[in-house]
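hey so u asked for the seq, here:
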Amino acid sequence: MATKARCREDDDPEFNIETSIQHLLEIEKNDFLVRLAKGEPLLSVRLLKRLKELSKPSEQVPSKVSDRTIGNILSEADRLKKRRKEAARRKREAARLKKLAKLEANASTLWEEVYRHISEKKPQAYDVAITILQDLYMLAKHQDKQGEYEQHVRKILQEYSRLPSLKSKIIHAKLIRNL
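ran it, structure tokens below
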């Protein structure tokens, strides 16, 4: 067996069994010894293959002195941070526009829902109506139709003037100016 190892050593002048064995992890050494004691066939071939792997120089990029300074690294980090923030902003804006398009398509139905919830005359239903009104306000602002929106809300306040809880929730949600 030693002769085979020597022959393989002669094939590759950079291969040195002794040096390669020193690079084996302790757990690998123990594993090979246990397998040897159990008489595993072709173990010498597997061991030599592993030792040759360890003897090859690692394929690392040669280290060189970097031209980068702390300032360069910090400005690159800042640039990446700004790029991530901008991507997140664009994603939020796309989601907002998608929501606005959906609101626009369902605007008349949403106003009907507001009236339906208010007519239940229950605080929880008012809360749902307020949430819908907030969405409709966002849509009106986007369409630059806040005046029309406020007319709707004022109409609601007139129709349901005997519901102080509703009026309080509308005021608290700041759904109408100058009230």
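DSSP finds nine helices and no strands in the chain. The chain has a mean pLDDT of 86.
lmk if thats what u needed
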